Structures are given as structure tokens and as C-alpha cells.
Amino acid sequence: MFDDRSPIYLQIANGIKNDVLSGTLKEDEQVMSTNQYAAFYQINPATAAKGFAQLVDEGVLYKKRGIGMFVSPDARARLRSQRRERFFTDVVDPMLAEARMVGVDVAEIVAHLEGGAR
């Protein structure tokens, strides 16, 4: 599950975010504890806790004292909104800049997209 490209705690946070976005984890659903997560993936519990803490700070997870961590009620909608913004910033805007440089207009791009990938 983990690679060497980014810190493991960030990979944990991103993995849980992807599970929320895909619907694998539902809103108000309990997630594994940091100790369960650490044991399952054979990582340091402090690393798992750091990833979970980030998700709590971002409002993706919330704590129920003495019970565990749960997916926030609005987490999926918030994550979708963030990813949509990032999609335009990271993917669409650079593509449009490149298209302008090589003389491709928006109508050609739309026609290409509607025709499906080649």
C-alpha cells in the first residue's frame, strides 16, 4: 500500500480520503483505530496517529470520546469540492495553456473529449 514517494502519514490520510470519495467509507461510519491500522499495515502507531490527526484537523474524521473515529457527515462533499478545484488547477489550466501554445482551440478540445480518448 505504501510507497517511498511521500511520508506514510500522508499516504494514510490520502488513502482514507480516497475511500471516503469512492464511497467505500460512508459518512458517520467508524474507521479502524490507529492501533488497528498500525497493526494491519505493520507501521508505527505514531505514524498512523499523525495521519488520522491530519484528517481530524481537515474535518474529514471526527472523534467520539471512548468510542473511536468516524467519517464526518459532510466529508465526501467537501473532499469532492476540493478535488474538483484541484482538477481544474492541476489538470485543466495547464492543458489549456499548452493548447493555446500549440494552436488548439477550445472547440477542438471539446470535440476530442466528446469523441472519447484515442
Automatic annotation (TrEMBL):
InterPro entries: Tscrpt_reg_HTH_GntR (IPR000524), WH-like_DNA-bd_sf (IPR036388), WH_DNA-bd_sf (IPR036390). One of its GO terms (molecular function) is DNA binding. The keyword DNA-binding applies. Residues 6-74 form the HTH gntR-type domain. PROSITE patterns: HTH_GNTR. It comes from the Bacteria. Transmembrane segments: none annotated. This is GntR family transcriptional regulator. It comes from Actinoplanes friuliensis DSM 7358. The lineage of its organism: Bacteria, Bacillati, Actinomycetota, Actinomycetes, Micromonosporales.
